[in-house]
Specification:
By secondary structure, the protein is of the alpha/beta class. It has 8 helices and 10 strands. The protein has a single domain, classed as Rossmann fold (3-Layer(aba) Sandwich), CATH 3.40.50. It starts with 17 loop residues before the first helix and ends with a helix. The N terminus is likely disordered.
């Protein structure tokens, strides 16, 4: 079997200019985010812990405290942020400088794949079905770059990125941003959740992300365990909030003051 050439070993005839294209897009992302004070990835590495629910309510709490806030729904296959922020499916508006984010509850700016798909439609990319396992991941990474580079966020104090389960989107995000974002971690109390979240937090630390703290969601009913405290002790970060099944509004305002 002949050795596989890396991209930089290809001849001019084989090269597509891909590094130049990606470099240009990264520069556009940097320009778009120049007015953003903080970029925070909300993640857990596990599904079903309420990341989107926490992200949306945290964004509203930050906005109520007087801060300019945006949310990018990076869960391309299961986007829920618009519904949580009370945003309908009205078409996104555009300006000469790019796509204008929608505004949800408390004035939170938002962009999501849900705004670009018909109700109930799956995320689908055109391409050879026999090779979908190869190109789908690349297309999703490209879609994330487009959402970051084409949206006119303007001046924001905080941009929250709601990540899907797993770590692939976080890795892509680090590459697109050029530096690892700060990470806010969501877990539920169970030991099983703690195991999955621990792996995600370790991966984020290894990549160089700053861990802001842990939010333990769905406490006090049904789920038993001490995952929040265990993870906080292991990674030397605070438990910023414990969110019960039916939280009072003050829970979110208190969280907004600690993030």
């Amino acid at each position: 079997m002949p050795p596989i050439r890396t991209y930089h070993e290809l001849t001019d005839a084989d090269r597509s200019g891909l590094p130049e294209q990606i470099g240009a897009q990264r520069r556009r992302v940097a320009e778009r985010l120049a007015g953003v004070g903080r970029v925070i990835a909300v993640m857990s590495g596990k599904g079903g812990v309420g990341k989107s629910y926490v992200t949306a309510h945290l964004a509203q709490a930050l906005a109520r405290s007087g801060r300019a806030v945006g949310v990018l729904d990076a869960d391309l296959n299961g986007p829920t942020i618009p519904r949580l922020l009370g945003i309908d499916h009205a078409p996104l508006s555009t300006s000469p400088s790019g796509i204008e984010p929608a505004r949800g509850a408390d004035g939170v700016k938002c962009i999501s794949m849900a705004m670009l798909l018909e109700d109930g439609a799956p995320l689908a990319f055109k391409g050879p079905s026999a090779e979908s396992f190869v190109w789908r991941g690349a297309m999703e990474a490209s879609a994330l770059r487009e959402l970051l580079s084409d949206v006119t966020w303007g001046a924001l104090d905080t941009l929250l990125l709601d990540l899907p389960p797993g770590m692939q989107r976080y890795v892509e995000l680090c590459d697109i941003l050029g530096a690892p974002p700060a990470v806010l971690t969501v877990t539920i109390p169970t030991a099983e959740s703690g195991d999955a979240v621990r792996r995600a937090m370790r991966a984020a630390v290894d990549r160089g992300s700053r861990l802001l703290g842990i939010i333990e969601n769905m406490t006090g009913q049904g789920f038993e365990g001490t995952a929040g405290d265990d993870l906080a002790r292991e990674f030397t970060v605070p438990v910023l909030a414990r969110i019960p099944w039916h939280p009072a509004p003050g829970v979110w305002d208190g969280l907004g003051g600690r993030v």
